[in-house]
Amino acid sequence: MSAVTYSNTDVEQYIEQHFVPVQINVVEHPEMPDLFGAPWTPTIIVEDADGQEYRRLEGFYDPHRFEEELALARVKAALDQKDFANARNRVAEALHFTRGDPQREPETLYWSAVVDYKTSHNAEDLKKGWNELLQKFPDSEWAHKAEVIRG
Amino acid sequence: MRGGLPDTEVFHMSIHWRGNLDDAYQEAQDQGKLVMIDLFNPG
Hints:
The complex is a heterodimer. Chain A is mainly α. Helices cover 56% and strands 12% of the residues of chain A. In chain A, a hairpin with a 5-residue loop joins strand 2 and strand 3 (53-58). In chain A, helix 3 (63-80) packs antiparallel against helix 4, helix 3 runs parallel beside helix 5 and helix 5 (105-120) runs antiparallel to helix 6. By secondary structure, chain B is α+β, with helices and mostly antiparallel strands. Chain B is built from one helix and three strands, in the order ββαβ. Chain B has one helix at residues 21-31, and strands at residues 10-12, 15-17, 34-40. In chain B, strand 1 and strand 2 form a beta hairpin.
């Protein structure tokens, strides 16, 4: 991760802007994997100040995929904290990163519709967003979650 | 929240990696940021 991803200028700036990064050497601190329930390295965990976890990554991520994952962590944090105004901005940011990624754009579209619904309290907004997801990525895991709107 | 890591603050690849979890959580609280924890094996 250090040689490729953390040395990427965009990744570096994104981390510095939105995260407080902590690096833990598990050889020097062998108790830490158990503390975090993380037996494999590298493991990257995104939490809030209360220790609530929003995203966990195992293994190597290239710079772009890593930014996508961090952006989705920020979306989920705002949603779970019911900060829907912030979530809307973060969804736009996540769409910027995940557009065209068949693995992560569906997740972004799923949460985008949820944010729209939570903001407007209009179920039609949820249906509209999830229908877009179903049409664009019908075989994705996130489309399967959205199939519930078909009743 | 999980603390207890000794202070091992470093700057690497221009990222300011904090080395103390408790301080990191507090900084995240103060600045409205999320904590990103990287558990790594240097070998």
